[in-house]
């Protein structure tokens, strides 16, 4: 076991972090809530940039059954989570979850303060549309805070797959991540490279873009893919 002392930004527990091996991205877990590094990095950024998040109107895209999403749902009365349910009309609820497509949201213009998601953007077909939709539905000063794998070794963002009405074109070996609502997994459509911030500013000029890559054992922020993005509606 590899261990670090510290305080978990997700659960505020002080029991520290432990990993069975050095693939910290999936292995360095909080000993109390089981959070992994990107969840703690996200929670850290949320507390830093939106310390008022408990009293805002917030949308989480594709939450997983994990401590970081539970904390927001429990502590923020204005929280709504959504999934891409192909069989539920967009905007309608299935249980506690709203049916939404991040590329075509049903929220009215300027109706939210915050969009959050963890590792969703690498699965969307049109990230430009997703950014424009997040911006459209945010009030001025509203924010989108999210994680997505960022490849510093890639000069340019790489498209991995394109989703068409009648199928998928793969532009490399197909890659799938776990999907909270499907056993088939979630198709990876992009590997984001060093041009990502420029691309995002181009896609939606009304967003300012901040990328943080905290490395801090005392919050269990260690290992690969530690990037968190903070977009603020400035126009
Ligand atoms: Zn924890």
Ligand roster: zinc ion
Structural class: alpha/beta
Number of domains: 1
Uncertain spans, ≥5 residues at pLDDT below 50?
none
What is the CATH H-level superfamily? Vaccinia Virus protein VP39
Morphology call: globular
CATH topology: Rossmann fold
End-to-end CA span: 48 Å
Order of helices and strands: EEHEHEHEEEEHEEEEEEEHEE
Mean pLDDT: 96
Number of beta-strand segments: 17
C-alpha-based Rg, rounded: 17 Å
Question: Into which percent range does the helicity of residues fall?
Answer: 10-25%
Order of strands across the widest beta sheet? 6-7-5-4-8-9-17-16
Provide the CATH top-level class: Alpha Beta
Major sheet size, sense and barrel closure: 8 strands, mixed
Strand % is 25-35%
Number of helices: 5
CATH architecture: 3-Layer(aba) Sandwich
Describe, in short, the structure shown.
By secondary structure, the protein is an alpha/beta fold. It is 19% helix and 31% strand.
Description:
By secondary structure, the protein is of the alpha/beta class. It has a single domain (37-233), classed as 3-Layer(aba) Sandwich (Rossmann fold). Helix content is 19%, strand content 31%. The protein has five helices and 17 strands. It has helices spanning 24-27, 37-49, 67-75, 127-137, 196-203; strands spanning 2-4, 17-19, 29-30, 58-61, 79-83, 93-94, 97-99, 112-118, 138-147, 158-159, 161-164, 167-170, 176-179, 182-187, 190-191, 207-212, 228-233. The strands form five sheets. It has an eight-stranded mixed beta sheet, sandwiched between helices. It has a three-stranded antiparallel beta sheet with strand order 1-2-3. A two-stranded antiparallel sheet has the order 10-15. It is globular, with a radius of gyration of 17 Å. The model has no long low-confidence stretch (mean pLDDT 96). Bound molecules: zinc ion. Zinc ion (ZN) binds next to loops.
């Amino acid at each position: 076991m590899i261990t670090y002392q510290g305080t978990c930004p997700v659960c505020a527990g002080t029991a520290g972090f432990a990993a069975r091996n050095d693939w910290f991205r999936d292995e360095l877990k909080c000993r109390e809530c089981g959070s992994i590094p990107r969840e703690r990095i996200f929670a850290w950024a949320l507390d830093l940039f939106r310390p008022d998040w408990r009293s805002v109107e917030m949308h989480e895209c594709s939450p997983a059954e994990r401590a970081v999403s539970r904390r927001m749902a429990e502590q923020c009365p204005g929280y709504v989570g959504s999934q891409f349910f192909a069989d539920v009309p967009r905007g309608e609820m299935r249980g506690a979850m709203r049916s939404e497509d991040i590329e075509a949201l049903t929220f009215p213009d300027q109706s939210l303060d915050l969009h959050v998601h963890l590792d969703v953007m690498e699965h969307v077909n049109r990230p430009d549309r997703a950014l424009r939709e997040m911006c459209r539905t945010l009030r001025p000063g509203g924010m989108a805070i999210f994680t997505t794998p960022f490849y510093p070794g890639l000069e340019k963002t790489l498209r991995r797959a394109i989703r068409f009405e009648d199928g998928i074109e793969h532009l490399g070996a197909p890659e799938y991540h776990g999907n909270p609502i499907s056993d088939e997994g979630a198709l990876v459509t992009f590997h984001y490279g060093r041009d990502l911030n420029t691309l995002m500013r181009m896609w939606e000029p009304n967003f300012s873009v901040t990328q943080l890559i905290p490395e801090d054992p005392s919050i269990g922020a260690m290992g690969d893919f530690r990037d968190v993005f903070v977009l603020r509606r400035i126009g």
